[in-house]
Amino acid sequence: MWAFLHKLGSPRSFYAITERWLPPLWLAAVALILVGGVWGLAFAPADYQQGNSFRIIYVHVPAAFLAQSIFVTMAVAGLVFMVWKIKLADMAAAMMAPLGAGMTFVALFSGAVWGVPTWGTWWQWDARLTSMLILLFLYIGVIALRGAFASRDGGARAASVLAMVGVINIPIIKFSVDWWYTLHQTASFSITEKPAMPASMWLPLLLMVLGFYAFFIAVTLTRTRSEILRRESSKRWVRELIEEGH
To answer: What's the pTM value of the predicted model, to 2 decimals?
Structure first.
């Protein structure tokens, strides 16, 4: 396992190995999101309290999960880059950040839309909402820092430090509804507890969550492969790939 991970840390090996992973990942992402979305939005029963407005859960929850997971992954990649100087980790972290920011915005916007029929307002300075807004600012900060330094390595180190420090916000997001009185409901979906919803509601949600994660992995691998070609353009193996039409 360690030998495989060490090999995967090489840009050239990573590029070659991940070529085989992309087709099934993209297929899984499209299939899971399509099936889960149609099932949840069209065929799942309406909630007994919220009616059909609850269906936004099939976008809101996967986006919120992914927004937090991406930031944690960025922090781990930043640690790997800072400690072991593996540049591929920094490439991957750089490629994740825009998607993470996008997912955070989707979670905030869909939550605001959901809040109108549920709370009667688009926004409340609720602990969960506020900590998610802070997460969006952290993503923006990480992205901005990469372009704020004259050297790429300087920007990479600054972005890594911010990601590692900012990751403390993730448990605050998760436990905010338990630590403080908030309007935001407790977790609608958990992998450690029996779902409170009937299977006809939580199964499409599970498919959407898995589909969003497959989408994240596929996008990250695709963008990281492109970044490898950009950064390693002077290497012989990259020139050979370009000559072969890859």
So the answer is: 0.94
